[in-house]
Predict the structure.
Amino acid sequence: MADALPKPPLTVLLATPRGFCAGVDRAIQIVEKAIEKYGAPVYVRHEIVHNRHVVERLKRLGAVFVEELEDCPADRPVVFSAHGVPKAVPAEAAARKMFYLDATCPLVSKVHVEAQRHYEAGREIVLIGHAGHPEVVGTMGQLPEGAVALIETVADARAFMPKDPATLAFVTQTTLSVDDTADIVGALRARFPEIAAPYKEDICYATTNRQEAVKTVAAGSDVLLVLGSANSSNSVRLAEVGRRAGAAAYLIDDADGLDLAWLDGARVVGVTAGASAPEVLVAGVIERLSESFAVELQEVEAARETVSFKLPRALVD
């Protein structure tokens, strides 16, 4: 029997950090521990995080995902997703005497607090974000209708007409492109030099770190593979950042989404994962690549993350 042909070499650059952030990790643990403590089913309003694999695994454990609180029975626990919810949602839960656990990422909650503070100070609030995203819906829902204006692009920033330019403030969605947001903020500041900014950057540390890692990896890669679901804002942004850095970037759910034709002629492939994508998906892609290539793995570290968030007291006691 003839010897098998040697596999072509492929260098795989693993972006670090990648995958789960502290807010996602906490949200998933809240659902898991709620099922463990209270039994199944535990209801979850909206996908706990935007990743198909995470949602399907939690369904198997006993989570039931719904879009609205009215779809939940009043006698079972309900968890609010990591993206945050409008104030009307916990108010409705309290009125129905429901037991609920809030898995809102603490860094999203920080934006809610900022928006409330600006509102109480009499400022008109601009939210930089993507229309319809649950985090944006939740942040706008912290305040009365009309109190927050949504800006998605530089063009929006240039066209925006405030009621009073002297009393403006801005907050942002936590999972945006760092570079795009800087451009939008720049356009706002050029028009409204006195606009009040967040005390500390609203785009979260995990989003920033993952984008920085991707810039480094993509600059040295022919192709970039981003593990994450299409409805995950931070994952979509990683692919965009990779393309800008010069790589052909593809967003895939898992190894099954990998088309080896993308790698024709490629010698270096970058791999990363969005903040809601489990590490097992990265391992699956590396395994798939190893079937066709002699893979050499190289870790590219842009930052070290040590952040962790406490679980709700009800699950710890």
User: Anything to note?
Assistant: The CA atoms of residues 169 and 196 lie 4 Å apart. The longest strand covers residues 9-16. The chain has three domains: 9-20+205-301, 22-105+309-316, 106-191.
